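In this supplementary section we document a worked example of the pipeline. Step one takes a protein sequence of length 219 as its only input; no multiple sequence alignment statistics are reported here. Step two produces a three-dimensional model, which step three serialises into structure tokens for compact storage. The input and output of this example are shown verbatim.
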Amino acid sequence: MSEERIEKLIDKVEKELLPHLHIESADPRNPVVPHHVPFPWKLLGAGNYAAVMTHPEMDDFVVKVYAPGRPGIQEEVEVYRRLGNHPAYSECLYVGSHYLILRRLRGHTFYACLLRGIYIPQQAVDDIDDALDYARGRGLFPHDVHGKNVMLQNERGVVVDVSDFLKEDPCSMWDDVKTAYNRFYFPVFHKLPIPEHVLDLVRKSYRWLDKRSRSREDS
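The serialised model returned by step three reads:
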């Protein structure tokens, strides 16, 4: 990954992407909405803080653009600084005004694997466990780790979103995901595609139960 290629990508971001990109942040509890991604840029996904895009000429990188008013870019930079070089995580290669250039991780999210009936081996789950333990050892607090934020890459597990790893409040999401895999996925559904409306119902039910649990703890 030469500095020359990074410089070329920065130039494309500043001149071709950002002037034409519009990202709406309507609700902090939901993903941001990119309304226009200029050709030939490709939208890879959107989270609660930012949208992620790549350029076909340099698709071994991704550009993560934070929506106006959404905080967190400096925190994410610090997370990547602490993580250093680890096979289960990306690397931050450049920090712009409100965007990051990251090394691209390729594969299918666990969520996409469930939709398509792609088998998720136990090794990939163990890899995520090991990666999160590594992050804790670097003074981080794995947070918001779920099926859309972890990926199957060459039969191994990788973590694709670390933006909340400085949050110190407890998060049991990954443990809950593992419980669901062990109870339902591996015994029953590991070879079957699961309809999106079913996964969406599970996601909404989890958020509702989690909200109720927090309300009880606060009362």
